[in-house]
Amino acid sequence: MAFHSNDNHFGYMKIHRHWSDQSEKYAGGDSLLTALESGWELDETVYYEDFWYAGSRQVTIYHVELKRADQKIAMPVLSNPYIRRLLPRLATKVLPVSERSSGLRRQSNAGVN
């Protein structure tokens, strides 16, 4: 799926943000956008996982699988309002991680450019 972030009602800062699982546990929305604009393609399903801290503060992580040519990478993306609006527009399905048939797949790569 081709991705263009020039929708005025759906815009995000134009920033190039490199991400590598070797240096950062989680990616931000800017790293996901950089990957999509650099030719990485989103898998048809994105899984989310909710964490609760002190019983009152929720943090959601989206487990995004990206591919480009013969490369694949798993990018855990921290939720924010922009990502919550973006993912339903890009992914065929957004499901809870409990519905994933095989455990979390994490493949080490040099990073996403």
Short characterization:
This protein has 113 residues and is of the alpha+beta class. Helices cover 17% and strands 31% of the residues.
Q: Can you give the mean pLDDT?
A: 81
Q: How many runs of DSSP E, i.e. beta strands?
A: 5
Order of helices and strands: HEEEEHE
Specify the biggest β-sheet: 5 strands, mixed
| Overall body shape | globular
Cα separation of the termini: 18 Å
Number of helices: 2
Instruction: Name the helicity range.
Output: 10-25%
Q: List low-pLDDT spans.
A: 106-110
Decide which structural class fits the backbone: alpha+beta
The radius of gyration computed from the alpha-carbon positions, rounded to a whole number of angstroms, is 14 Å
Strand content: 25-35%
What's the layout of helices and strands?
Layout: H1 29-37, E1 41-42, E2 45-53, E3 57-68, E4 71-78, H2 81-90, E5 93-96
Parallel strand pairs: 2-5
Antiparallel strand pairs: 1-3, 2-3, 3-4
Structure description:
There is one protein chain. With 113 residues, the chain is of the alpha+beta class. The chain has a domain at 29-99. The chain has 2 helices and 5 strands, in the order αββββαβ. The chain has helices at 29-37, 81-90; strands at residues 41-42, 45-53, 57-68, 71-78, 93-96. Strands 1, 2, 3, 4 and 5 form a 5-stranded mixed β-sheet that branches. The two termini are 18 Å apart. The model is unreliable at 106-110 (pLDDT under 50).
